[in-house]
Amino acid sequence: MQKGWAPAHAAGAQGIRALRRSFFLALCLTAAVATAQTPEPTLARRDAAAWLGKIHRAAQRENYVGTLIYQRGSVMHASRIQHFSDLVHNEYERLETLDGKPREVLRQNDIVHSLIPEAKLVVVERQDAKDRFPALLATNKGDVLDLYEMRRLSPERVAGMECEVFSLVPHDGARYAVRLWAEKHSGLLMRAQTIGEGGKVLEQVAFSQIEIGVPSEKQKILGAIKSAANWQRYEINYQPANIAEEGWLITVPIKGFQKIREVRRPLGDLRSAQGSGREQVFEVLQVVYSDGLTGLSVFIEPVSEQRVRREGVASLGATQVVVRKVADFWITVVGEVPAATVKQFAAAVEYRAPKPR
């Protein structure tokens, strides 16, 4: 009986395996046909603008607590975020690193307190939070949709949340494509990816866990800011600048990028700013450009013996860096854009020594 049963059992098992293979192949073929027959629909401009606006507002007005995973190239780290908004849209935010040395960033509207516990140092500065996940850079003129085509993809789940998925495809090669996952009801951004050539994901940030609509705990954030009042304090002050008056000319080489800020600001090792190492903090001119979705900065600093620099290019994930020397100055261009775009901006920087007044 055993001998008679074994071949039949083996034949049955082979049949089941063959059936599974056929079923899997059928699924793959069905998916391929569906993909081939269903191109990504382009959103009407009005609908696209409405979704971008909804995503932007949700980041500012929703109360949420979650864990963020950020990946740039091969580097990955996690953070815990808490965000609360009141009835008049004041914002309170706490961001805590979960990897490496403990770091904490506390924000009340546009005033940011960065805590460095091992140095008992708090760095205070005014920042525009529109370009930090889960917010988006925003323009008032809908310029983004002059430069990108917004397409709706199939819905997906992220961190347990049902999401609408969109891709923003640039009209030229001067910027990267972007993929967005927005929570279906609130519009809060759950995941964002920067896409390079061949669909490669260069950089992404996403919630791995989140709660939306939680009770506000803004008093805890205000209390944490107050608790750091006795630490060493370093305030970063941005002074308005006019680079043209200092002999600089930057002719924007690529359509769609607009100058949104030019300032004189400190850079360097701020942990030593209160001690004998103050020379490690130096001032630079910074000019910020944006196309409404992504941005880049041009930094201008005098050549100095304290800062050894050299010309060259570097990249990490979606971020590209170009350093070149112009007269007695170092020009550094940093942006989450293709290398060719950063190089064009670097090449567009000209200097003519201003006449003595």
Automatic annotation (TrEMBL):
It is found in: Periplasm. It comes from the Bacteria. Keywords: Periplasm, Signal. Residues 47-221 form the MucB/RseB N-terminal domain. InterPro entries: MucB/RseB_C (IPR033436), MucB/RseB_C_sf (IPR038484), MucB/RseB_N (IPR033434), MucB_RseB (IPR005588). GO terms for cellular component: outer membrane-bounded periplasmic space. Residues 244-350 form the MucB/RseB C-terminal domain. One of its GO terms (biological process) is regulation of polysaccharide biosynthetic process. The keyword Membrane does not apply. GO terms for molecular function: antisigma factor binding. Residues 1-36 form the signal peptide. Pfam families: MucB_RseB, MucB_RseB_C. PANTHER family: PTHR38782, SIGMA-E FACTOR REGULATORY PROTEIN RSEB. Belongs to the RseB family. This is Sugar dehydratase. It comes from Cupriavidus cauae.
